[in-house]
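Hey team,

Filing this mostly as a record. A colleague (T.K.) asked me to run one chain through the structure pipeline before their review meeting, and I want the input and output archived in the tracker in case anyone asks later how it was produced. No errors, nothing strange. Just documentation.

Input sequence:
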Amino acid sequence: MPDVPRPLLPPRRWLRAGLAAVTLTWAGAAFAQTEITFWHAMDSAPDVVDALVERFHDEQDEVRVDARFVGSYREAQTKLLAAFGGPDEPDLFQAEIGFFPRLVAEGAVQDLSAEAAALPAAFTEDFVPGLWAYGELDGRRYGLPWNASTPALYLNASALERAGVAPPATWEAFADAADALTTRRARGVVFVGDSWLFEMMVRSLGGALVDDAGRPTLDTPEAREALSLLADLEARGSLAFFGADETTPAILGFVRTRSLMAFASIANWPDVRRFSVAFDLTAAPVPMREGGRVPLGGAQLVVMRNAAPEARAAAWRFWRWLMEPEQIATWVEGSYYLPVRDAARPLLEGFYAEEPGRGAALAQLDRAVPRPRIPAFDAMRGILDDTMERVLRGGRDPGEALADAQARAEALVE
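Output structure:
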């Protein structure tokens, strides 16, 4: 059976009208106040989200934001599907960027092109170009940037120093480092079989998972090289593999020095720091071949289709406030995501200087590219996750597994 995703939306329903606006009395004067529901997946920084919302409320009285943490990206996606069209559907939703194109294709989110067109050029030109462009599909604006990241190579700097190993800048050096760091009690590297990290490898080697025409390209020389490298390291005992849903045990293995290098989003830094780490922690840019790239990560904020006009206006106002340099700086310092506007960087010089490894993802921004923005990519990610499981746990030949993955992916776009 082809991996065809079920339709996202039920039959069209009437927009909720007027439910978000209430009239309150304060100091003897009546004023209209709009309340919006905001669903987010920031499990590593829920307190930062709450603090920003509280600050927003302190600075104005017209909009109230009910921010709700609804689980991981995958859990948030599942809950959104269940809530769509009903009374629990949020007004503002944080859509992981692999899921975002599907929402747009299904007509689940509102077109914000009119609001975006009225933004000052100085404001939009201050965004990191790839991050601002991400929210556009087919020439229309549907997504608004907020949290953005690139993958980074986390390192047990103490172990590398003892072994005389430098942070690897190429994949050949990475494989040598993983072997050199492996001992009886520790693997050189831990790898989570998530499609984003596999895409990281393919992109950094000069390949891509989708071509310019929107067709899947999962079985390419770069993809085979990436998966074969992982399989070889696993066979030599230098790599510990965890599935896409096993991020927490993978992090635990790294902080407990059972593995000494790991790939993850730079935004996972607080997750690592939550534990008592008995070594010097740092991060480095992803190993790279000449001309290689790294995929962007993170999410777009979207206004759901059924949000009333006043809720749409309130969500836009909240996002504009989040994009002020001071709010971006607060967000970055608490979450370790990247600053999406250049104007915020001077406010973050001390933050990045305090621990230089924090800037590993920032150093790659000039080589960062968007993830594939086709609706079928949401299902393709599952195919890639499954392919890595079959090879790195099931022992299947990488070339055969990728050929099968390509056939399954092609069935999605036929």
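Quick notes for T.K.: Residues 1-30 have pLDDT under 50 and may be disordered. The radius of gyration is 22 Å.
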